[in-house]
Known about the structure:
Blueprint: E1 21-24, H1 30-37, E2 52-55, H2 60-71, H3 90-109, H4 118-126, H5 134-137, H6 139-159, H7 170-194, H8 204-214, H9 231-238, H10 240-247, H11 255-273, H12 278-296, H13 302-318, H14 331-344, H15 366-381, H16 390-404, H17 407-419
Parallel strand pairs: 1-2
Helix pairs in contact: 1-2, 3-6, 4-7, 4-11, 6-7, 7-11, 9-10, 9-13, 11-12, 11-13, 12-13, 14-15, 15-16, 16-17
Amino acid sequence: MKLLVVVDKLLTGFDAPPCTYLYIDKSMQDHGLFQAICRTNRLDGEDKEFGYIVDYKDLFKKVEKAIAVYTSELDHSAGGADPEVMMKARLDTGRKRLDDAVEALALLCEPVEPPRGELEHIRYFCGNTEIAADLAAHEPQRVMLYKGVVTLLRAWANVADELGSAGYSEADATRLRGLLDHYVKMREIVRKASGETLDLKPYEADMRHLIDTYIEADEPRQISPFEGVGLLDLIVKTGIADAIAAKLGELKGNRDAIAETIENNVRSKIVREHLNDPAFYERMSALLDSIIKQRKEKAEEYEQYLQRIAQLVQQVEAGRAEDAPIELTTPGRRALYNNLQPWLAGKPMYHIAEPTPSYGAKISNPALVLALRIDQTVKAVRPDGWRDNPAKENAIKAALFALLQDVEQVERIFLIVKAQGEY
């Protein structure tokens, strides 16, 4: 909700932290007036420091009187924060806030290496794509950048129409507009490079239901077919060249910046999905490391690199390797198979229970046999609401032990089963 028109309601006893502006077109006084203007003084995050009152009824003198009456009986004996209610010069406060926001972002970006272009910013805020943990390690810098840009945008909006009155010259105004554009652009580039843009696709059905149920409007005109589609999903659907053109056009053909943006998106996906299938995503992470190393060593042409990274994206998005057996028709079966393979390497066949006839009479792959057997067993023995219920979880672990005969492996495979929604 951006605008609320109120007539004789919601002026007292009403708490709305997001409220930043209050437009008064009603005569009020004393306690009622003070309560009304206090609708804007609730904090709503670190970037809101105060609210604005736009007065159409010339109530300023009455506001001063209301504050004087209200503060005359404040208790100053308790210690701690000063309970005084103070009035400040809005433009002076707004200028200081804008200058502080610009300075904070300048200090944050100061360590970025020259020439401080897109690639240097990506590397500073996302890390080295060759180091798997670097993307997560640089998250605090990215969070500070996102918050800093929001603070700058709000501070700019507060004084943008009155820069001259706030004491800024024309040159200052031009410089500030340039800085604003620069930091907003860098925020979007870093968001894309780190895979932290919001992918709206999972919410599409729910949003469409809300729109269809509660909103009446003309047919929408689609401006872009790719809005709300993540970079990796777009690579799978349209091919890597079209995805780069649609999503990374602002990088203007900077091959290293484009490559590191894609690599960070893949790394982010691997980190998010790792618990669902540790063995598979560790293999994908190692493959990504190899691709990055060859790119940086210039061991292959850029077109070959794009083909390899596109193939990797296809596998990571699908959650399965290209050579996965056709019997692995669900994410749960694939996860079990991928994580049983290393353990079963070199083990004799008699360790593995035979599959039921429904899976086919003969399967020569031990890991596949055991994965299908575990899949069937867990679905047969799982109680309702078993997750985080120790007694019910133990029932599943007992069934796993009958198949695996290894306590350590039971605990490892149980965590994978627990992470799979189909169980």
